[in-house]
Write a structure and sequence with these properties.
Blueprint (H helix, E strand, L loop, with lengths): L4 E5 L2 E4 L2 E6 L6 E3 L5 H15 L9 H12 L6 E7 L5 E9 L9 H10 L4 E7 L9 H15 L4 E9 L2 E4 L7
Parallel strand pairs: 7-8
Antiparallel strand pairs: 1-2, 2-3, 3-4, 5-6, 5-7, 8-9
Helix pairs in contact: 1-2, 3-4
Amino acid sequence: MTLATTGVSDSGYQLSGFPWLLAGEQPGTYRVTGDVTDAQLLHLAKLIARKRLSKGTQLGRPDEVHRCLQTLMLDYPHEVFGILCLDTRHRLIAFDELFRGTLDAACVYPREVIKQAIDHNAAAVILVHNHPSGDPEPSDADRRITQRLQEALGLVDIRVLDHVVVGHEGYVSFADRGWL
């Protein structure tokens, strides 16, 4: 489903698939015209987040990555590990969720990460995963797998720009902490 307009009403453009939502006067703003459930709002938020992660979007700062991914990964009851594949100018090629785990762990296989990055012809990647507990503080296991992935991807000339851990309470960027 896209955020396309379908026509004009007295109060603005109707958004396709969302009869209770109108496009606002300013780009990126919306007006609600009726009752909306939590599920409808979350669905819309995820559509907007996916739109922000469209091919060609330039990603460079951890807060940009966090803003896009927090909504997508927030309500998972288990850990999900993914990669953002980037071209040489750090523009997004693809976002792939690669591994799903348990409440507090996900098995990450470097071979599969490398395969996915090569399949997308990525020059660089940003590793991402969520912490369902809400606390984004990386574990020792998070730090170890990041080091293994950085070494493995380096062998095929793919740079790891960052590893962003997303939680309800914010995010942690390995690059910001000087761990990469």
